[in-house]
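Section 4.2 – Deliverable D4.2 (structural model, holo form)

The reporting period included a commitment to supply a predicted holo structure for the target in complex with thiamine diphosphate. Inputs used:
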Amino acid sequence: MTTSDAPPVAAPFLPSLEPIRLIDEEGRRTADSARGGFDLPGPDTLLALLRAMVVGRRFDAQAGALAKQGRLAVYPSSRGQEACQVGGVLALAEQDWLFPTYRDCVSLVTRGVDPVEVLTLLRGDWHCGYDPKTHRCAPQCTPLATNASHAVGLTYAARRKGSDTAALVLMGDGATSEGDAHEAYNFAAVWNAPVVFLVQNNQWAISVPLHRQTAAPTLAHKAVGYGMRGYHVDGNDAAAVHAVVSRALAAARAGGGPALIEARTYRMEPHTNSDAPQRYRDDAEVEHWRRRDPLARLEALLRSEDRIDDARMAEFGARADRLAESVRERLARPPRRAADELFAHVYAEPTPQLRRQREAVRAARARADHVGNGGR
Amino acid sequence: MARVTLAQALNQALRDSLAADPEVVVYGEDVGPLGGVFRVTDGLFAEFGEDRCFDSPLAESGIAGTAVGMAMYGRRPVVEMQFDAFAYPAFQQVVSHVAKMRNRTRGNVELPLVIRIPYGGGIGAVEHHGDSSEAYYAHTPGLRVVTPATVADGYSMLREAVESPDPVVFLEPKRRYWSSEDVELPVRTAPMDRAVVRREGGDLTVIAYGPTVDTALLAAEAAAEEGYDAEVVDLRSLSPFDDETVTASVRRTGRALVVHEAPGFAGYGGEVAARVTEQCFHYLEAPVLRVCGLDIPYPPPHLEEHHLPGVDRILDAIDRLQWESAWVPDTRPVQAPQARAGVGA
Ligand SMILES: Cc1ncc(C[n+]2csc(CCOP(=O)(O)OP(=O)(O)O)c2C)c(N)n1
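Output (structure tokens):
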């Protein structure tokens, strides 16, 4: 029987009240004091971040349009949160896993998942669209905070097998109130699982503002109670998000334990296309955040330092347009729905009950086909 | 042949599973050095080390959720929920993730994990320690829900659950943990998704599972003295349901009753009765009856005998299976139903 007598040390876990920022709102490098000991990533990384954000935003706009046309059942836009999703994902190594939510389509596109596959669920299909093992991306998770413990279990298992796989969990500010978030943070810290929890604090959980969600000084302060490191970062600064997530992943991989990162950002669009934000927030607030746009900020820095010009920006834009066009074309037709497959993956082998139900559905379809469309 | 208790058989099944497959891990609350509050994991920590058998933080949703993640990485977690009612915090993980992952990923990610839950009453425990929660799980597509009633099945079904490519909710009848049988381990019994006839009889079929199988067998012996020859079917698998075995028995006997500890209202027995009626209607001599727990929260220890279906209540139900009454048409004049207010031409 052993218990530890080591005195507890909380100080190194504490986040700063001011968010870590490497590029200010005007697109200038920040002073040392704002950087929290982090350095601006190199120009190649910055260009990659900008390119992925341009592509991500275009994809997001296209998906929003498809939702309006009824080609998607619903679409939760992440406009304004590109720095979090792109900054986080580009910090991942090949072998790492990503655990996204419904809000995080842009993160999946950035990870390289086929955008049409990414939209499968939102199109109204019954499965996530992609093979999670191909890109090491878990299915997008809707029950809030419930995928966080999956990341803990997965990376703990990997670590025990000697792999250096780490994981990035994306979650919203509202989700941090869920018991599952608490349990996952605690398991991760106790098991020393290499997980980085990136909370995209976009200020709103549907209609509920942050101050109704928590009394903590910042969401990152929650980390201290679990014995993990907390970081508070400007979520509209892709460079800062990338730098902080990179360091947190490296530390976790090296055995330094998990981290909780709060990225302060803003949800520019309604919660989904069927939300009515005028019922709970002012346009002035949205305008305030529009001036802190993450794409404009990084572009301004790269332009002022002569790392990018109009031609290069046009190149990024053309790439984004091609992606959007391909999504539009491929989603023009409704998906082919095979009712048979509804029974195929409930168990490894359909049970006798499911086989009978499958036959009944087949027979009903055959009758309908026989009578003609809409017949029974 | 050695005398083995159900708890020991389950323990041996876990030990043999750990030895057979390096991907198997066993964890939960107090399952490490203590060996679990019912000692089902006794000695595993010492034998396999804390890599394979360990205590987790005290949080059931976290236990189930991390098991999902481990299984995604190719491990085969066997997690313990300390008691039936303390598995409820894990419900969301079980229903929304454990049960659905294979389907949500179109078969690309399977979760071969086992959630062991000691369930049911009869041990004189205080509140929250006697729930029969099987219907919640059986109602959830994607889960296999099984419950052993014998020592040999305890061993065999747990081995099979660990080997299954599907997630299994493994319900252990806690008041049978100390029941013993002469059995040589390892043993393999019938496949875990099949029901088994425990006692053959020609007059009626008693359908039971888990803790009530022994009760049903005792009742069958008592019924024999009263001239009824009862067949006893042990379901073993609550999901999927073995229609074949149950239907064959009831078609032969023409009468059926279902016995379980859980409250009868909206309980598992309702599903059994409906299935039997649908598939055996023309063979039935009487309605299918249910002998269940009362529709109350699990009662305190000194009153649990009223709640638990015992031999007497089963015998009473057998008496009510309409042995005497042939069908007599009701010739009373039919009263016209009253028109409902606001309805009608
Ligand atoms: C467990 C659970 N409760 C409620 C919901 C319904 N719901 C979906 S999104 C949402 C708000 C979530 O807010 P937040 O975590 O801040 O993420 P955001 O949507 O802003 O990205 C709610 C309440 C849910 N999906 N899961």
